[in-house]
Amino acid sequence: MHDWTERKLGDLVDIKHGFAFKSEFFREESPGDVLLTPGNFAIGGGFQDKKLKYYDGPVPGDFICLPGDLLVTMTDLSKAGDTLGYPAIVPDDGRRYLHNQRLGKILVRPRAPTTKKFLYWVLRTDDYRHEVLASCSGSTVKHTSPAKICAYRFRLPPVGEQSAIASVLGVLDDKIELNRWMSETLEAMARALFKDWFVDFGPVRAKAEGKQPPGLSPEIAALFPDALDDDDKPVGWGFATLAEVAALNPESWSKNTAPEGIEYVDLANTKWGVIKATQRYDWSKAPSRAKRILRVGDTIVGTVLPANGSYSFIGVDGLTGSTGFAVLRPKRPEHAEFVYLAATSPESIERLSHLADGTVYPAVRPDVVAATEVFLSDKGLISSFSKTVGPMMPQIEANKLQNQTLAQLRDLLLPKLMSGEIRLQEAEKAVEAVA
Fold first, then answer.
1. pLDDT of residue 65
2. Contact indicator for 240, 234 with CB cutoff of 8 Å
3. Strands (E), 200-307
4. Are both 5-156 and 238-376 of the same fold?
5. How far apart are CA 126 and CA 403, in angstroms?
6. Class of the 238-376 domain?
7. Distance from C-alpha of 58 to C-alpha of 40, rounded to nearest angstrom
8. CA torsion sign, 182 to 185 to 187 to 190?
9. How distant, in Å, are the alpha carbons of 36, 48, 73, 107, 281 from that of 65?
10. Beta partners for 238?
11. Are 306 and 372 in contact (CB under 8 A)?
């Protein structure tokens, strides 16, 4: 500790603003370059591939990001400061990323006694976050500046110790990222199967051509008809709604039934199938919206700003959800996977977004979620579908739970390592026990 020195971030780095790329070249889908914006920064650090924008116009060479570049958000588009000042390291994943004007690139000065990997973790400490938020400007959209970020002061260990600290924390983040990737892959497989069976009618089309549906056992294939009707839907199938296979908001706490304490799930911490955090409250101090009782197998879908993707499958008991969720509980447990995938398909979320009313916080009623239309034949096909994708969901939920444990350990170790409160050997042993 005696060789740690207090430094100002501006003594070690410069921060370069990005380029104002012209919106006329923005694309929602394109093989072009990925335009990085604050919306692509995950809360807590790193990138997220949600609502990516692409760019196919001219690109100044100085604003092409290289793998390993360290970026920081200068503007927060969430209007709440959620990602203001957050860092991310540009990945080496084969895509070319562009440096947007709402981001800053951190350039370590020649011979500065530090590394980008260590500074990345400095920019993830609560102490840094508090200073950035305290000095930001803007009442509606929050902004910071290179000068304000560079004014941050912290204690800097020798370079060798910096590398060791970054390595210990990086092991946890790498494991979290691997689990996230595995879960997203499994869910993508389940969604692809749902789309093939119930949207594109792949097995029906195969049988109509006299072919055996690929990948299906004869018993499951027999559940599909072998022809499409004049409306291009499977013969004998009809429209139904999720209300026919799931109960809407089946349980809520009241003053008489409420427990002493609850584990609360809100919309802000529920994104694209993942509950990122919960809050523990005594019932007397819980938010007034903390009412929905959640059970394993439920699906929750945010009714406020539905385009934000505030939905998730419930994999553990003991949670209480906000009344901002529509809770769908399958009427038969074996239909849980079908209900989740139908309610949260891209088409369903887009539908809710179009139907949302309100200028500041567009929302839909819970019954609008339950009125989501699906194609159904008989319940046997839904049960067969759930049996097929069922093994994927426990693994996804196990990955989520492990990630919560890993993130808690990382967030516990980060300030202690940065202050020198804990020795590296102790931190390494803690990481080995869970990673």
1. 92
2. no
3. 238-241, 246-248, 261-265, 270-271, 274-275, 279-282, 290-294, 299-302
4. yes
5. 20
6. alpha beta
7. 22
8. negative
9. 10, 16, 14, 12, 43
10. 376
11. no
Alpha carbon dihedral 234, 235, 236, 240, in 10-degree steps, equals: 30
Q: Tell me which residue has tokens 């950035």.
A: 132
Mean pLDDT, rounded, for 338-357: 94
24-34 residue pLDDT tens: 888 877 767 88
pLDDT surpassing 70 at residue 80: no
- Stated pTM of the model: 0.84
DSSP helix/strand/coil, 92: coil
Task: Convert the pLDDT of each residue in 270-320 to its tens digit.
Answer: 989 989 889 999 999 999 999 999 999 999 999 999 998 999 999 999 999
Q: Please tell me the distance from the alpha carbon of residue 6 to that of residue 44, in angstroms, as a whole number.
A: 24
| Residue pLDDT, tens place only, 232-253 | 999 989 888 999 999 999 999 9
pLDDT greater at residue 38 or residue 416:
416
Please tell me the CATH superfamily of domain 5-156, with its number. DNA methylase specificity domains (3.90.220.20)
Written as six digits, the tokens of 69 are: 């570049």
Distance CA 152, CA 64 (A): 27
- The token pair at 216 is 């299906």
Q: In 3D, which of 14, 27, 77 has the Cα closest to residue 54? A: 27
- Residue 305 near residue 362 (C-beta atoms within 8 A): yes
Relative orientation angle of helices 392-419 and 424-434, to the nearest 10 degrees: 180
Task: Compute how many other C-beta atoms are within 10 angstroms of the C-beta atom of residue 48.
Answer: 16
Return the pLDDT at 77: 66
pLDDT number for residue 361:
84
Element (H, E) at 407: helix 392-419
Q: Average pLDDT for residues 322-350, to the nearest whole number?
A: 95
Q: Which token pair is 185?
A: 């892959």
- Between CA 305 and CA 352 the distance in angstroms is 9
With residue 66 as reference, give the H or E element that holds it. none
| Nearest one of 414, 410, 416, 407 to 180, comparing CA atoms | 407
| Lowest mean pLDDT segment, chosen from 55-59, 120-124, 252-256, 323-327 | 55-59
Q: Where are the alpha helices (DSSP H) in 252-389?
A: 336-343, 346-355, 366-370, 379-389
Domain residue limits, the chain: 5-156, 238-376
Radius of gyration from C-alpha coordinates of the chain: 25
